[in-house]
């Protein structure tokens, strides 16, 4: 989807059409959750602190997020997807992979099928979507960003390797900023540069990711589209209006975070064994520590104890905290009758 949250706000409020819009909190420690294309022209992007966004675009209009609306529209879009294929791997509310290997023949081509999906989305939601069409996930993802907004781009098999060769490695989906810096340090700037390295050479610098990098430099990606992919973690976090160093304040906020996390587990019918606490200090340094229970749990009291112990392990603090977050992982389906309740010792 094109600027999904912001586009919904512009759709639902005609006064915002054609104007720079940011979804998020426009004061204090707020950050941009999404930006319209009008705002992006000024360098406003998601995750940008609100005060910096306003410096770049003084005319920027902040609107509070409405995640219930975004989820409802996402459900509409996924219903459209299911009309065309059942093999759907969601990436977020606004993005998904679709495997149409068995369906494209009915439409003449995968490109025609993608155009039909985009047309249905436009007619049923009033929003635009961009599509990437190719023979694997890596290339389809790259293609989807080539003609945004409201565009479609196709990378056929005979052009896949050549397309990757000319692309800067920082544009590769799956190559983040840290890996980009390491590749640049090795003289790897494009797909063509990456292709000159053997798997063995890449392993010395990138470990288990070497085979993936070796393959994508050749336009190869064997990963299937995974329908109904199980959730790996669930988390929530709070950003403070002012940096906090007081134990009582942090412990109180963490208690509320745990309540929300436990409620989310019950709602999604999942339980987990590992709890990870995240602190972001005033200087934006982020640190995490984790602890595991001997059994999957959704018991709030158990999660409270684990989270409390993790927070205590950070004291005395190196410096005040600007963000506090908690994530539960090692998830299993929630079955209340099968989950033991135990307040004993935990594994470190």
From TrEMBL:
Top class in the EC scheme: transferase
InterPro entries, A to Z: DNA/RNA_pol_sf, DNA_pol_Y-fam_lit_finger_sf, DNA_pol_Y-fam_little_finger, DNA_polymerase-Y, DNApol_IV, Rev_trsase/Diguanyl_cyclase, UmuC
Keyword Transcription included in the entry's annotation: no
UmuC domain: residues covered: 1-176
Pfam families referenced in this protein's UniProt entry, alphabetically: IMS, IMS_C
Record keywords: Cytoplasm, DNA damage, DNA repair, DNA replication, DNA-binding, DNA-directed DNA polymerase, Magnesium, Metal-binding, Mutator protein, Nucleotidyltransferase, Transferase
Cofactor mode of binding and number, as noted: Binds 2 magnesium ions per subunit.
EC number of this enzyme: 2.7.7.7
Molecular function as annotated in GO: DNA-directed DNA polymerase activity
CDD domains, A to Z: PolY_Pol_IV_kappa
Positions with a binding annotation for Mg(2+): 94
Site features described as Substrate discrimination, chain residue numbers: 5
Function of the molecule: Poorly processive, error-prone DNA polymerase involved in untargeted mutagenesis. Copies undamaged DNA at stalled replication forks, which arise in vivo from mismatched or misaligned primer ends. These misaligned primers can be extended by PolIV. Exhibits no 3'-5' exonuclease (proofreading) activity. May be involved in translesional synthesis, in conjunction with the beta clamp from PolIII.
Description of how the protein assembles with itself and partners: Monomer.
HAMAP family: DNApol_IV (MF_01113)
Matching PANTHER family: DNA POLYMERASE KAPPA, DNA REPAIR POLYMERASE UMUC / TRANSFERASE FAMILY MEMBER
Homology family: Belongs to the DNA polymerase type-Y family.
Protein name, as recorded: DNA polymerase IV
